[in-house]
Amino acid sequence: MDSKRWAAVVLTALAFWTLPVSAFSASPEDEAAVKLALQTYVDLDKKGDVDGLLTCYADDAKIDSIVARGKVTKGAYAAAMKQAQAQGHLSRNHEAKIRSLTFPNPNQAVLEFDYDMDSSRGGRRSTTLRWAMANREGRWLIVDTEYLKK
What we know:
Blueprint: H1 3-17, H2 28-47, H3 50-54, E1 57-65, E2 70-73, H4 74-86, E3 92-105, E4 108-118, E5 124-136, E6 139-149
Parallel strand pairs: 1-6
Antiparallel strand pairs: 1-2, 3-4, 4-5, 5-6
């Protein structure tokens, strides 16, 4: 390969290498379904429906939980939430405000949102969360959570 052709190949490769990676463009139906999953979670949380909340998580979910004091499995999260509920430590009056929603591919979503609630100890508390979600058999489930601000 001559030097001019080699230079063109290298420049072309560099141009593609420096392009920003864009997220998958989700369908309006998928965007609506993820937003509905968040609203369903908020509504269940407002009611204190721990069993209902658990249905929002995939069985293999990893959950960053203040109540469970760390990143835990769905089973450990369930036990911590039920204990907090029995002791009257679950808060009410929740509200979620979406910061961003991206789709790395057609079956995955990343949702960042502010979650405001009345504290069980009085006052108002605001956190920022990131959820990784997966479309499993037509249903958007939470597979990983992370507090960005506690």
